[in-house]
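Cont'd.
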Amino acid sequence: MLINALVTKHGDLGAPKAKLRYLVVQGPLAAEAKPGQFVHIRVSAAFDPLLRRPISIAAIDRARDEIMLCFRVQGRGTELLAQTKAGAMLSILGPLGNGFSLPRSGELVLVAGGIGAFPLYALAQAALAAEVPVRLLWGGENAEFLANAGLAHWRRLDLPLHLATLDGSLGRRGLVTEAWPEYLGLRGRGAGLEDQRVSVAACGPAGMLKDLSRRCGEAGIALEVSLEERMGCALGACLGCVCTLRGKDGSIRRAKVCSDGPVFQGQEVVWDAETGE
Amino acid sequence: MPRRANERSQNGAHPAATAGEKVGTMGRAETLDRGRSAPGAMDKPAVDLTVRLAGITLRNPVVTASGTYGFGQEYALYCPPEEIGAIIVKGLTVHPRLGNPVPRLAETPAGVLNAVGLENPGLEEFITSYLPALRKLPTQVIANISGFSVRDYAALAQALRSDSGLAALEVNISCPNVQHGGMQFGTDPARVEEVVAAVKASTDLPVIVKLSPNVTDIVTIAEAAAKGGADALSLINTLLGMSIDIGRRRPVLGNTFGGLSGPAVKPVAVRMVWQVSQAVDLPVIGMGGISTWQDAVEFLLAGAAAVGVGTANFVNPRAPSEIVQGVEEYCRSHGFQAVREIVGLAWRTRGI
């Protein structure tokens, strides 16, 4: 849908200098929104900057008709968005995209790199509501980053958290996929028992997702990844935001990140097209 | 056509402004300002919006530009096909194309560079999987064809004749984002004439030729298209440009170069429509940065018989519908009974 939605809350997720923001908007979007979807926001009444900005949905509160959007201020568009005050109206197109799926059985392991944790928060909420066992593996630069990116919110969800930082200032030291390998393979392989089956949902830098895709592929674990790309229309018309997929027969095809995704099966994605290698 | 919110005219606001509020913000202040001269709106005399162009009739002069409205389904929720004059679908080639690597988009001041590279399903898949749905759309559908040789263009035209259900073909001789063909055809008058003649000889559909602005003299190219037998012209395609990421010290686009569109290119497009519509006796579909009804009126006054809305769809998915309403209200409030009366008025002497 295309609506003018009321901004009910807007502020810093952590320390202001981290430039990580949360923004809550109210409207009928919430009734439709699914974890993993995004909205496309007009950030300027003029034509400069021109394009809308895609922002992932970080939390959905159907009772209050609200969705929370989290984003990093990193360019002219998000700088303008960061100036939006509570009480203002925003032109929002969405919710858009396909979203994550919840496993019918077994455990859901969320793997986040940096601000990739944002869309996974809505999925964690949905998993908890559906009584799907869920845990988070989250990697960031350091303890300060994780604190500024909403760690306190995650702690309130009361699910197992496994943190990794590059400098070891919180959790294990290193990349999240390397720091917590025991959750990304061994338990799933040949376990045979329903309740030990694992599926993974992930969002983060392309390099992390590529590594994760390899690990999950080797272990036979289902993996859903949320991709990011520069978007134009966000409706599947302009073909600006494509990714490359490899079918089971080995054939290569393009898919639209906005309307075929942003969530894809990890094993399908041709990562070298994503990482620029 | 359905009208709405004409009550707003009583306090001087323009219907387009009302629609603009619904989606937010597109040019709102501007729209309100310019809408003050709408005295005749209360009586609501009918304005004839129909346009006859290249032998086909459009219910109104607003079409969606190729590559910006997909295949007619993507925008149906926001800007239904029955509210627009015609849909020009995404550029089609004989064989399927994966297009260019990402990034394919780079935002620029009031514009965007794109380098999609003609990603498309190819002729065969287009006919089997896309055409049946396109045929059912409640508007005129124009296919856009691109080739890498004269033979390609002829093959596409041969396969897409009037029994396809299409209203016309738009011949893309101006795509800047492919290595061979595309724009190469559009910059050499002799090649333009050759391609257009080959297409004309292969199809019974009206042929619209889309011109590139990346030429020394667009009038020469337009004349060559006319000589080749074109029934109409559309202009302009995107302007070739590039953008460099100063952090990575590399071009932003995967294809290095891309085509610039959006409000930034509008003055170039208006100038070219002005020149071509006076020099060549063919109807012109004017496009290039049209985002508001005021922009559309400007193109009509410059000599365009119809206007194409492209990049603005990404910003405001309701843009084409709102532009139709705005153009209608402009005609009504200025005493024009038909939109065709204002075509070329900026250079024509009124009354001729």
